[in-house]
Amino acid sequence: MAETTAVAKKESTFAFGKKERKLLTDPLNDNNPITVQVLGICSALAVTTLMNKALVMSIAVVFVLAFSNLITSLLRTQIPKQVRMIVQLVIIATLVTVVELVLKALDYQTYKDLSVFIGLIITNCIIMGRLEAFAMANSPWKSFLDGIGNGLGYGIILIIIATIREVFGKGTFFNYPLIGNNSDFLINLGSWYLPNNLMVLFPSAMFVIGVLIWIHRAWNKDLIDVS
Amino acid sequence: MTAIVAILLAFLYNGLKPIHDLNEANYNKRAILGAVAGQLSTPLGDMSDEQVSDVFTNNIKQKVVDLDGQMVDASAVEALGYKGGQAENIDMKKEKKKADADKVLPVFEFTSDDGKQFYIVQVRGNGLWDEIWGNIALEKDLNTIAGVSFDHQAETPGLGAEIKDNPAFQSQFIGKKLYDSNGDYKSVFVRKGGAKDPVHEVDGISGATITADGVTEMMDRGMKYYEKFFNSIKG
Amino acid sequence: MGELANIFIKSAFIENLALAYFLGMCSYLAVSKTVKTAFGLGLAVIFVLGITMPINWIINNVLLSETGIFGLDLTFLRLILFIAVIASMVQLVEMVVEKTSPALYNSLGIFLPLITVNCAILGGSLFMVSKEYNFSESIAFGLGGGFGWFLAIIAIAAIREKIQYSAVPPPLRGLGMAFILTGLMGMAFMSLMGIDPGAF
User: Whole-model pTM?
Assistant: First the structure.
């Protein structure tokens, strides 16, 4: 994997070459946090019933991941090994609290919809995983890029799942009526169509991710589980 | 380090607290006005937060009553921990847990711009996952429902959450009556498979039987709490 | 007492943390390849949930709430304190178990550090706050939630052990299949939703 070869050497420039670009694009496909690394599943399932929830959640995770990576990387030489878990958790928890307070001020409805899942970003394993695997061993700038890359990789999957679930489950997209069985909807499919309620229930999130992994691996054969 | 973090967060929290409180208050006001949405001169969705506040101060008279239908004065309500003793600040979640004798209930007397009078009352019950609640507007006869707005903590989107999201479900309640022609209390039922009684029943939501039963139970119990208050006005 | 049993059953079966709220999925999927490891992790989750839930209840209601000993609304520190309690409790449990019962440590020990970032634990505490449980209810909720999670991971591990002998399409093997199986289990658990726990 690309990032394990990177060494923690002094870099004063904010270079944006091939290697840095790879930090951003790698998590979108070959090393996707959800479908390949299997991190951060809980929130991927719980918040993907509606597009605006998934979008707000993605933005929040990109923010928390990028900045916790940055801060951890800045502090990485000062953190004693024994207490690093606690220090990392405090950094993450602080950033998540900031997100929660700001969201409550900006968009109260979405804040209410997301309820405990904003707080659960703390235990989103993507964040801890990236801090341990990357930020503790890399320069701040690279860590920041890695955070954004992984956050986006997570966000893309979230948005794909939410699109499928909201459009087929409720017939709406960002709460805008899209396909349905009466004239309130943009595309009126008439009496033979009913929104599939199963799509908004929890099991369907599992099916959708399972099928996404299937498609992803059928297309990118390197990822097939040989065991 | 934790101390620095705590201080930073404290600043942020206190800086944003007025906005949080305002958001919360406006959210609540919009929900209450949602019950009389049809009577407002501007659609609720197009109103700014200031306009909502204005309607609230100009068109609404807030009262607090107990289960015997007696007025509870503001100082007594404030002593229960509700800011300003205002009906809009009453937390129905707390009231739901109290014994009947200790309950206080909010009443909002709404006068529309063309001079019609409505009473908005609040009910709270249990859905499938967590609590559900609603604001019920009654016409001047304190029998005919003029409108409702429901909300919920955690019902399933597309199923139970339709009590809030589906305007067609809520508009079914308009014109339904709490009392039958003999004056006996009947409440309004959510009937699975389609309403049979045009006066006291509405259609259920497919796939959301438990939430719908929750609405039935909440209406039946919640409106009964106000019975003595209604009688005191009807005389 | 009936109320507590009610909460236990509700949190174990109907509002199952793993299969209805999808909490703790990372370790649920990672450690469910064999029943033996799943059993160890499941036990550790019951243990930690049962301990952290009442402690976090005390923190939330005594330290942080406006009616608590400081008389200030300190809820913005909730997340930080909750996660700190969970992390330090896990560490403490690890040390105690290591000292007192080597046998238990051998079966539980390696899973304990995983539990800090298991969102079922933090999620449990946050649900306890949003549902406004009292002290004894929070213990029942913790134990019930832990038990439900334990059941779920044992069940998926047993199925995954069997399915190794089946002809699953290669791209779906392993992870993909685990997701679909969990979805099916979730559907099965949904049939428990209509049950009135008060009937027990």
Answer: 0.80
Backbone angles phi, psi at A215, to 5 degrees: -60, -45
Closest B-chain CA to C194: B210
Residue A199 lies in a domain: yes
Counted across chains A and C, CB pairs separated by less than 8 A come out at: 137
Our count of domains for chain A comes to: 1
In a domain, A125, yes or no: yes
Spell out which residues of chain C touch residue A125, defining contact as CB-CB under 8 Å: 26, 117
For residue B104, the cross-strand partners are: B66
List CB contacts of B190: < 8 A, sequence separation 6 or more: B201, B202, B203, B204, B205, B212, B213, B215, B216
Say if CB B221 and CB B67 are below 8 A apart.
no
Q: Is C167 on the interface with B (CB under 8 A)?
A: no
Residues C71-123: tens digit of each pLDDT: 777 778 888 888 888 888 888 888 887 888 787 777 666 677 778 778 889 88
Q: What domain range includes position A63?
A: 39-220
Tell me if A205 and C118 make a contact (CB, 8 A cut-off). Answer: no
Among chain A residues, CA nearest to C127: A116
CA distance A117 to A111: 10
Beta-sheet pairing, A187-188 with A179-180: parallel
State pLDDT tens for residues A6-34.
Answer: 443 444 456 667 777 777 777 777 777 77
Q: Do C172 and A120 touch (CB under 8 A)?
A: no
CA distance A142 to A135: 8
Euclidean distance between CA atoms C80 and C65, whole angstroms: 15
Q: Which residue from A minimizes the CA distance to B16?
A: A105
Tell me, yes or no, whether A27 lies in a domain: no
Q: What angle do CA C59, C64, C70 make, to 5 degrees?
A: 115
C134 touches chain B (CB under 8 A): no
What phi-psi label fits residue C85: left (phi over 0), alpha (psi between -120 and 50 degrees) or beta? alpha
Where do runs of H (alpha helix) occur along C59-77? none
Give the total residue count for chain B: 235
Q: Is C66 left (phi over 0), alpha (psi -120 to 50) or beta?
A: alpha
CB atoms within 10 A of CB C34: 12
Say how many CA atoms lie within 13 Å of C136 toward its Cβ.
6
Chains that touch C (3 or more CB pairs under 8 A): A, B
* Beta carbons of B13 and C130 less than 8 Å apart: no
Q: Please check whether residue B203 is in contact with residue B195, taking contact to mean a CB–CB distance below 8 angstroms.
A: yes
CB contact under 8 A, C26 and A202: no
Q: Cα–Cα–Cα angle for A38, A43, A49, nearest 5°? A: 120
